[in-house]
Design goal:
By secondary structure, the protein is of the alpha+beta class. The chain is 29% helix and 26% strand.
Length: 223
């Protein structure tokens, strides 16, 4: 069994927290792992937000497993969480699973350029808080016959599909970043793009969206 040696207990704890948050939104969540050198990238897709979440994890030493110097596998998020040992700062890689469609469409590793117009951290948090308040107010005004999942989804789609200030970033990406614990600390935010992808980077993780064929931002399946 392949065992990942993480840089320290903090990296192990952060990885476990990220996996726990993904599982909160999808108990059957899968994650795609890519390791090369001393970096491990963990990709997941919380279904409530329709975005791709990326958590970068530092390894204690360059990845190797026999003759392999890189890892690329999709596994169960729940099984990976169970395999994380905080004190030992290790994680055994579970058996591979058949990946969901999104796992075949990942952002590029390079070619990213800065996008202007991203508000400060406090403004992004306030934007999410305002969206949540609006959702609660609008759904609270619904009559009993209209309190359906379809109506809730319609209202949520209206609110979270709006874009942030003068950027192309949908508000749902910021909501996802906050819900996944990425909007912490004092800053270090960046909005970058590469081809069809737009990515909100923070020191604690990234959220990416991909321009679909309709011209909207979202995750589209592999073609």
């Amino acid at each position: 069994m392949t065992v990942l040696h993480l840089a320290d207990e903090g990296e192990a704890a952060d990885l476990a927290a990220f996996l726990s948050r993904l599982l909160h939104y999808d108990r059957g969540a899968a994650v795609r792992l890519q390791a090369s050198g001393t970096a491990l990238a963990v990709f997941g897709r919380p279904p409530s937000f329709e975005v791709l979440a990326i958590r970068a994890v530092r390894l204690a030493k360059p990845y190797e497993d026999g003759l392999d110097d890189a890892l690329d596998v999709t596994v169960s998020a729940g099984e990976l969480l169970e395999a994380v040992e905080d004190k030992a700062a290790t994680a055994a890689v579970p058996r591979a699973v058949t990946g969901p469609p999104w796992a075949g469409v990942l952002p590029p590793r390079g070619g990213w350029r800065a996008e202007p117009g991203l508000p400060a951290l406090d403004a992004l948090r306030a934007l999410v808080a305002a969206g949540i308040a609006e959702f609660r107010a609008r759904t609270g005004e619904l009559g009993a016959e209209r309190r359906t999942r379809a109506e809730f989804d319609r209202i949520g789609g209206d609110i979270w599909s709006r874009t942030v200030a003068g950027t192309r970033l949908p508000v749902r990406a910021v909501h996802a970043a906050q819900s996944l614990g990425f909007l912490r600390g004092e800053g270090g935010l960046a909005l970058v793009s590469s081809g069809a992808w737009l990515r909100l980077r923070t020191p604690y993780g990234s959220v990416a969206v991909r321009r679909a064929g309709s011209g909207t931002l979202g995750i589209s399946p592999a073609r």
